[in-house]
Amino acid sequence: MKKVLGFLFLLAILHIESISLPIQPDGTLPADMVHPQIIDRTEKLGIVFQNCTTPSMIGYNLDPTIRYESEVWDSCGRFTRCTLMSTIDKSTVSWYFLDGKWVSPLVAKTDTWSKMDSRYFRFICNRPGEMSEKGMASLDGFIERTAEHLGITADELATLEHEKILYYLCDSVESVQDLTGNSTRGVYILAESAIVSYLPCHYHEVSHLLVNFKLKSVPIYTNPFLQEGIATCLGGRAGKTSDVILSMGAFLVNEGMIDLNTVSDGSLFYSIDASLTYPASALYHSQYLLDHTIQEYLDLYRLYSGNDPVTRLSKVPVTLFASPDKNLLNETIIFPEADGITPLASDEKYKIESDTIICKPGWLLISSGQWEAPEESRLFEEYFPERQYMGEEFAVKVSPEEVMVYDFYTGTIIAAYIASLDPMQRVIPDIDGAYAFSFSSGIMPDTLASVQWSE
Question: Tell me, what's the pLDDT at 29?
């Protein structure tokens, strides 16, 4: 009797019926059932996705191989949710509607999130305290530098400035998955020209968007060596800058841990750990972009792109990519000659002489004073879980085996030396138990407001 009453109660609060939505063979809805706000997002940057029935639903379409037999309708604030259910494998998919038109989860699930604008971005955040003035400026600067690399014109930049790239800053990987269905730190949503990320400055995903923005007419599938190689070369990966990633790639290639024949083969690329394939692909791309024009590269990118998923399994001829030059890397951390460096005094933990830092093993917590500090930093919390964040801008980790530089305002590792992974097999100068190093231009500001040593 209780089960019957429970079922009747469920019927009373939910509207359950067989499938009534006009689902198309590719798992999308007709374009006239998509909300104008979503269509505007798809079209505003002028990116055209080839051979798509409803481009606004790329990535949100149902799997055509799964048969959904019933719908459950319920209310979610000002939105209506339709949960499609398959009785065969018990899988469900939720679609959201506003005024009878389909909207994406990015619209339906972020209605109350904080919003702020920079020159090229509109940020929608459920952890707004982590988005800093410097982080926004860094992303804007990345847009302009990458635009120069890709040949994006001043008029096209003006379009980005007017229309804005949507950037959803999430408070967790779980939140990214809730919005996108992908368990990852971040993802570029093709249909909405949007970035959804756990990282405050996800340059890699922004790179994907800018490549498509330059191409304008975009096939859905691309050989992953090209797709991920260019994005990693320009924007780094996993919270590390491209300089850090390229150094990793040089070590991997030099040691024979991965090679061009492997990474260029789309059928193998995703079967190998991304910590190998992405850095190596970026390294080969860096050399290619030195040897060729950007137009030659974009033509190659188009050649190995298509609308059939099998395109991703294609193999790019290895003869098109030269072996990376040994002088290709930008040394972000520089080691001086030990001769002439004065050791630390007995009561000193560190000192800075000209551009050289001499430091005992431990951490240097640094602020430039040039930017307003964010309220919080997940990168700081990761490395200093027992400490309260007080607005520190950088941390430099120093040990006999490594020098690492963390930028808490952008959430990024901006420079790294790890002895066991250094492609040039350099050694940190040991000055009576302290270690001497300096940074290449642009890593650290010329003027530092505060420096504090910590174990």
Answer: 95
